[in-house]
Amino acid sequence: MPKDAEKMEKIVALCKRRGFIFQSSEIYGGINGFWDYGPLGVELKRNIKEAWWQDMVRNPPTGPDGREVQMVGVDCSIIMNPKVWVASGHATGFADPMVDCKTEGCKGRFRADQIAESQCPLKPSKCPGEHDKCQLTEARQFNLMFESHAGAIKDDANKVWLRPETAQGIFANFKNVCDSTRVKIPFGIAQVGKAFRNEINPRNYTFRSREFEQMEIEFFCHDRDAMKWWEWWRDVRINWYKSLGLAGENLKPRNQDDKELAHYSKACTDIEYYFPFADEPQELEGVAHRGCFDLTQHQQHSGKDMTYFDDETKERFLPTVIEPSAGADRSTLAFICEAYTVDPSRPSPELMKFHPRLAPIKAAVFPLVNKDGLPEIAEPLFREIRKRWPAQYDAKQSIGKRYARMDEAGTPYCFTVDGQTKQDGTVTVRDRDTGAQERMDKSRVVDFLNDKLS
Ligand code: ATP
To answer: Which of 106, 308, 322, 387 has the fewest beta carbons closer than 10 A?
Structure first.
């Protein structure tokens, strides 16, 4: 059992209780590998995706040579021409080794390469194969792509796949983007969207799901500059996580060794994170040097020219690709685990210390009591705030309980209107992390939040 398994259970309980994450179709017993985001979770995940888009696409850091980095976005269909997946190698190669247990009453199904971390369904203290009743089959390859049919007839000619990654939509549109914009190499194309993988063992909460979202960039450059760009993207991506709160020991970038690297790849760093559910760090994102493998494949399979012509050097070439490929759900889970804090000195000890940019609710407004003219002051203040930021108004229960609710939601600032507000126009602002309170004129609240949240 991982040493922080108990902490993970508490996080999962808080996420359900406060509406971050629910089991999909829970009223029907759920469905393995699928999750729903509740009212707080949807805001959190949206903030993460928006922070990524803002920091990587609209306003990326300055490039390695001190120049602006060109980035554009696309939003491609989930179902594409199946030839895309033949060209990319997914149709034949996107498979995990699977073993079945033939034992009556078990009939478990496991990933052969993860047996050591799996539990025997009949005897969870043992791994599959260790219990004397286990009868495991030989491993066979199981393709992870979900199949469907486009059109009324369910035959092989209409077979399609749900995309297992967003990257291929970017490669397939490489020429369209070059022809429709003024981007010049080096430049990147970004996409955020759903991907589907029929994982053999979905597990560890949302970490390994069958439906998830990716945030991917394909950065096209000249091969001679590729290592420089790879290093730059690797550092940009590590710093992005740090800037939003994964600043401690839990973030662990790891370079893949030669045995792990794909045959076409010169370098890949997995940005890993110590989740409480495992003793080893787990992948949040891979930053890979992919050579010109993908464009070469699509050129061969589509018969279309995928080369790039540089008008300055008059050179025609297939660009090399650097791919920072992140999971939105895994990042969300990492930000949740990192934010989860227990402060035994508080009456309600659990709080979520989200970075203010990610916090689902930025501010809350409370009248100390729901009478005596206080709501008449608090409500307009709340309306002013909610024009700009997600905010909540709460007039129920004791003030301590209201603070505790906001601490669990990760709301960085709570403003309270009390008797003194009627006399001098000041309100208290309470800081989530320290619990410290100070008074400020209510006319300063919007500027205060502007400073803190921007
Ligand atoms: P893993 O080895 O954990 O299966 P991967 O190396 O196959 O991951 P990639 O194909 O590189 O993952 O996908 C890029 C990112 O997409 C991953 O770093 C991860 O954040 C996310 N991702 C991949 N598979 C899943 C999944 N089943 N559930 C949630 N997120 C996923």
So the answer is: 387
Q: Is the CB of 284 under 6 A from ligand 1?
A: yes
Q: How far apart are CA 132 and CA 23, in angstroms?
A: 34
Q: Is 215 in the pocket of ligand 1 (CB under 6 A)?
A: no
What CATH number corresponds to the domain at position 376? 3.40.50.800
Domain that holds residue 403: 361-453
What is the CA(183)–ligand 1 centre distance, in A? 29
For residues 370 and 436, membership in a common domain is answered with yes
Is 209 near ligand 1, meaning CB less than 6 Å away? Answer: yes
pTM value?
0.94
Assess whether 305 and 385 both reside in one domain: no
Domains contained in the chain, number? 2
Considering only the C-alpha atoms of the chain, give the largest distance between any 2 of them, rounded to a whole number of Å.
79
- Which residue has a Cα nearest atom 23 of ligand 1? 327
Asked if residue 96 is part of any domain, the answer here is no
Residue 152 is classified by DSSP as S
Task: Judge whether 111 lies within some domain.
Answer: no
Q: Tell me: the pLDDT tens digits for 256-284?
A: 999 999 999 999 999 999 999 999 999 99
Residue 123, domain member (yes or no): no
Tally of CA atoms within 13 A in the half-sphere of 330 that contains its CB: 26
With a 6 Å cutoff on the Cβ, whether 41 touches ligand 1 is no
Q: Whose CA is nearest to atom 11 of ligand 1?
A: 286
* Residue 42 CA from chain centroid, whole number: 12
Q: Is 159 helix (H, G, I), strand (E, B) or coil?
A: strand
pLDDT score, position 370: 95
Contact 334, 284 (CB under 8 A): yes
Within a 10 A sphere around the Cβ of 435, how many other Cβ atoms? 13
- Nearest atom of ligand 1 to the alpha carbon of 285: 18
- With CA atoms as reference, report the closest residue to 416 among 433, 434, 395, 397: 395
Mutate to test the pocket of ligand 1, among 273, 330, 332, 336 (most ligand atoms within 8 A of CB): 330
Average pLDDT over residues 89-117: 89
Q: Return the half-sphere exposure (C-beta side, CA atoms, 13 A cut-off) of residue 183.
A: 22
Tokens 């120049």, located at residue:
67
174 domain residue, yes or no:
yes
Atom 21 in ligand 1: which residue has the minimum CA distance? 327
183 and 55 in a single domain? The answer is yes
